[in-house]
Write a structure and sequence with these properties.
This protein starts with a helix and ends with a helix. With 309 residues, the chain is α+β, with helices and mostly antiparallel strands. It contains 12 helices and 12 strands. The protein has 3 domains: 186 residues, Jelly Rolls (Sandwich); 54 residues; 55 residues, Arc Repressor Mutant, subunit A. It comes from Paenibacillus catalpae. Keywords: DNA-binding, Transcription, Transcription regulation.
């Protein structure tokens, strides 16, 4: 057999093996089994401490699987991210990113297009998919994260070797990944249409608008008929932090604004941000910002003066 024939034969076997793995899955959902996929790029991104970047190619679907590190994804709000998290970016969503100085991110980034092609006696028209049924951010447990680590590494390796393996191999592996993600996400797959998501949204809005009050997460969960553990899971999925951490984040943002743009005394700012003791407020503020409230105010005002000079 000629060398070129061997290459074609091996490539065909590789593609056939992948195809068999796909068709052997007995429970592929309607939403994934009719998808036609085209991969633009797969990147294994190792960032450096303090790295910053933006999402450059915004007109495609993207998965960002975080292997290591910690950082922030900024859309209309800040989302804290860490290893074991998956971000799904729909086409058109703008986002900036940064790594924490002490734990730079390492991510596998899969940029792709997809369309639905169904067969019902005859082939139907190809319909581009504007958004897949995934949340923006998902947090996985250790066992699931290890499995996804292997899947994303496999897709990247097949992308690098695509000239030998054939262009269909990465797409078939992405098809398998989409199906696996579907099954991992079954409990929350239609969460945006469920009462649980409505409860989460109402509690999130309550934290954002009533942070000055003495709010209790357990009481809010009971009021909106959602378990505290499931509420925490949803906050982690959609904000990157738990409900208590999210409330502290909102209060901290307000406190920073009061310190920089008003002359209110520290004890008054504490009460305006939901803290009834100045000591507790100062302790929490320093934990989140590395400075006491008074030192933060002095630093920011000094920076403002130096800029105007």
């Amino acid at each position: 057999m000629e060398e070129s024939d061997k290459h074609m034969y091996n490539s065909s076997l590789f593609r056939l093996a992948d195809l068999r793995r796909i068709t052997a899955l007995e429970d592929i959902s309607h939403a994934t089994k009719h998808l036609v996929l085209h991969i633009h790029f797969i990147i294994d991104k190792l960032t450096y401490p303090g790295w910053k970047d933006i999402r450059n190619l915004v007109n495609v679907h993207s998965f960002y699987w975080i292997h290591e590190g910690e950082g922030t994804f900024l859309t209309n709000t800040e989302h804290k991210v860490q290893s074991g998290m998956l971000a799904y970016l729909r086409p058109g969503l703008e986002m900036s990113m940064r790594s924490e100085p002490h734990a730079p991110l390492r991510m596998t980034m899969v940029l792709f297009d997809c369309a639905e092609l169904a067969y019902d006696a005859v082939w139907k028209d190809v319909s581009p998919v504007s958004k897949l049924n995934f949340p923006f951010l998902s947090q996985y447990g250790q066992e699931q994260a290890e499995e996804l680590d292997v899947l994303f590494k496999g897709i990247y390796e097949s992308w690098i070797a695509r000239m030998a393996a054939g262009p269909s191999v990465p797409e078939s592996q992405l098809q398998l990944l989409l199906n696996r993600l579907h099954h991992l996400e079954i409990p929350d797959w239609n969460v945006e249409e469920s009462g649980a998501f409505a409860s989460f949204e109402k509690i999130k809005q309550t934290l954002e608008s009533r942070y000055i009050e003495n709010l209790r997460i357990e009481r809010l969960a009971q009021e909106y008929t959602i378990s505290p553990s499931y509420l925490r899971k949803m906050f982690l999925k959609y904000t990157g932090m738990g409900p208590k951490e999210y409330l502290n984040h909102i209060r901290n943002q307000q406190a920073c604004g009061y310190l920089v743009f008003t002359d209110y005394p520290i004890n008054q700012i504490a009460k305006l941000c939901g803290y009834y003791e100045e000591y507790h407020f100062s302790k929490m503020f320093k934990q989140q910002n590395g400075l006491s409230p008074s030192s933060y105010r002095e630093k920011k005002r000094a920076e403002s003066i130096s800029v105007t000079d």
